Amino acid sequence: MAAEAHTAEITLRYFAWLREKTGRSEERIVLPRDIATVGDLLRWQNARGHPFDMAFAKPEAIRVALDHAHAKPGTSIANAREIAFFPPVTGG
Amino acid sequence: MTVRVGPDDFNVTAEMARLSAQDTGIGGVAIFVGKVRDHAGGETLECMTLEHYPGMTETELERIETEARQRFKLSASLIIHRVGTLKPGDNIVLVIACATHRQDAFAAAEFLMDYLKTRAPFWKKEVLSSGEARWVEAHDADEAAAAAWQAKSN
Hints:
The complex is a heterodimer of chains A (92) and B (154). The longest helix of chain A has 9 residues, at 38-46. Chain A is 21% helix and 23% strand. The radius of gyration of chain A is 13 Å and the shape is globular. Chain A has helices at residues 17-22, 38-46, 52-55; strands spanning 10-14, 26-29, 63-66, 69-71, 82-86. Chain A has a five-stranded mixed beta sheet. Chain B is 37% helix and 36% strand. Chain B contains four helices and nine strands; from the N terminus they run βαβββαβββαββα. In chain B, a hairpin with a 4-residue loop joins β8 (122-128) and β9 (133-135). In chain B, α2 (56-71) runs antiparallel to α3 (102-119). The interface between A and B is medium-sized, with 16 and 28 residues.
């Protein structure tokens, strides 16, 4: 059954202004079964209602990491245990 | 290869001596220190807070160092990045690249910084003297500098 990939609870983490706008640094969640890619996930966040609609209003301004590795909108989220959302990095 | 992330300041001379002591084949050491400027966008900066993603930060910095060693003939390298609240004049980041010849040392230090600035999960929040606090936005020029290295490897 294709839907089985998303029966597990995973961790979502938020950094910088995404942490401030969502009002949390992390949450444990079981994602809906039809979310296959990073792009799907960003659209789902934007449709979750307040405060996520505000935080994810501009998905192109948000970067995503799957289990500590940078991912692109087309990347599959299958098997990811920890997914992080953050703005483009500004260290150095 | 060493990567260190934390609130503590670093001693450039001590770090360089420790890194290059083991290998007398080293002929050149390039050092870059990034510091907090006292101004931002024409306004006076009071302080800044550096946030990071523990776990991913160390992993990503190690990936960047590994890539540098594949591209350049490096004898040793070091990246130290501070987090927490810093004031103008404070050190933020230290990159040291040791090589037999200077070209590899210079190029590797620049490469390490260009990749760090676009890949390592750090975020700066500035507090201005007016009291306003704002997240620093990423610069297109940093992305272009990292992309230029990618073009060179193709």
